[in-house]
Automatic annotation (TrEMBL):
<dbReference type="InterPro" id="IPR045851">
    <property type="entry name" value="AMP-bd_C_sf"/>
</dbReference>
<protein>
    <recommendedName>
        <fullName>Fatty acid synthase</fullName>
        <ecNumber>2.3.1.85</ecNumber>
    </recommendedName>
</protein>
<dbReference type="GO" id="GO:0043041">
    <property type="term" value="P:amino acid activation for nonribosomal peptide biosynthetic process"/>
</dbReference>
<dbReference type="InterPro" id="IPR009081">
    <property type="entry name" value="PP-bd_ACP"/>
</dbReference>
<dbReference type="InterPro" id="IPR000873">
    <property type="entry name" value="AMP-dep_synth/lig_dom"/>
</dbReference>
<keyword id="KW-0597">Phosphoprotein</keyword>
<keyword id="KW-0436">Ligase</keyword>
<keyword id="KW-0596">Phosphopantetheine</keyword>
<dbReference type="GO" id="GO:0004312">
    <property type="term" value="F:fatty acid synthase activity"/>
</dbReference>
<dbReference type="GO" id="GO:0016874">
    <property type="term" value="F:ligase activity"/>
</dbReference>
<dbReference type="InterPro" id="IPR020806">
    <property type="entry name" value="PKS_PP-bd"/>
</dbReference>
<dbReference type="GO" id="GO:0031177">
    <property type="term" value="F:phosphopantetheine binding"/>
</dbReference>
<dbReference type="GO" id="GO:0044550">
    <property type="term" value="P:secondary metabolite biosynthetic process"/>
</dbReference>
<dbReference type="Pfam" id="PF00501">
    <property type="entry name" value="AMP-binding"/>
</dbReference>
<feature type="domain" description="Carrier">
    <location>
        <begin position="213"/>
        <end position="288"/>
    </location>
</feature>
<dbReference type="Pfam" id="PF00550">
    <property type="entry name" value="PP-binding"/>
</dbReference>
<dbReference type="InterPro" id="IPR036736">
    <property type="entry name" value="ACP-like_sf"/>
</dbReference>
Length: 290
């Protein structure tokens, strides 16, 4: 059965049980590790899928055999994936770039929309390799992992929005999770229909931080406290406390734990001003020097 993560999450919430030999196909939005773990408990085969309508839906797939990551895997047959910089050059393994899709599934363009077609469907600079004339420009960021799998990061459009919001809002008020809608449902009075809005299956996009594991003793100690307070595994010292589910109450718990475990006294405002482990420690070291 194929459905979006939002639908699978709803099914797990109401106690749905998978029949024997059931195969779960999950696509349309990012698959979280938390949902992966819940679906795994059903004892079913789980596949993560990625691909837009413009490339005949699914272009990259992966059977999830580990809870360590939720990469989108590798391209299906007759499909080519390129991760490129702004000059259409392939980026090194591990570096992020825009995902471009080539191959037999790429559409010719948008009917009666030549300008949009020219923007999203570009001449294939690698046509000598895959023998197809066009690439589809997805607008999504991704990167190749050392094992050859592809990791989806987030939407480039979301990054542009974050840059704007960061100029106008305090860091802790800038969203780290976005819901993407193609259109807004309207009422008869031409107002947004909020009930219909909540019922739509949409693409949930998170903004990934640069992954940098805790390395110093203090970074590891602070990361351990974060994990206890938030109840999750910290992937990077650049992860945002509030993006991981933190709020003013858990921030107060964090301050208490740091006071007890590390003998460090910090004001609540510092957590909001420095919401990552990296920023927090940098500010603490600066205060110590001063």
């Amino acid at each position: 059965m194929q459905a979006t993560p939002a639908t699978w999450r709803l099914l797990t919430t109401v106690g749905w049980q998978a029949p024997k030999g059931f195969k779960i196909l999950c696509g349309g939005e990012a698959l979280s590790l938390n949902l992966t773990e819940q679906l795994w408990k059903k004892g079913s085969t789980l596949w993560n899928l990625y691909g837009p309508t413009e490339t005949t839906i699914w272009s990259i797939i992966m059977e999830i055999n580990s809870l360590k990551s939720c990469s989108i895997g590798r391209p299906i047959a007759n499909t080519y994936i390129y991760i490129l910089d702004k000059n259409y050059n392939p980026v090194p393994i591990g570096m992020s770039g825009e995902i471009y899709i080539g191959g037999a599934g790429v559409a010719r363009g948008y009917l009666n929309h030549p300008q949009l077609t020219a923007e999203k469907f570009i001449a294939n600079p690698f046509a000598s390799i895959d023998k197809h004339p066009r690439l589809y420009k997805t607008g999504d960021l991704g990167r190749y992992l050392p094992n050859g799998n592809i990791e989806y990061l987030n939407s480039i459009d979301i990054n542009k929005l974050r840059v704007y919001l960061q100029k106008t809002l305090p860091e802790y008020m800038v969203p780290w999770m976005y819901q993407v809608y193609n259109t807004f449902p309207k009422t008869d009075n031409n107002k947004i229909d909020r009930k219909q809005l909540q019922m739509q299956d949409t693409k949930l996009v998170s903004v990934e931080s640069d992954i940098k594991l805790p390395s110093t003793q203090l970074e590891k100690q602070v990361a351990s406290i974060w994990e206890d307070v938030l109840g999750i595994k910290i992937r990077s010292i650049n992860d945002n406390f509030f993006a991981l589910g933190g709020h003013s109450l858990t921030a107060a718990q964090l301050i208490s734990r740091m006071r007890t475990n590390l003998k460090i006294e910090i004001p609540l405002k510092l957590i909001f001003d420095s919401p990552t482990i990296s920023q927090l420690i940098s500010n603490l070291e600066l205060k110590t020097r001063n």
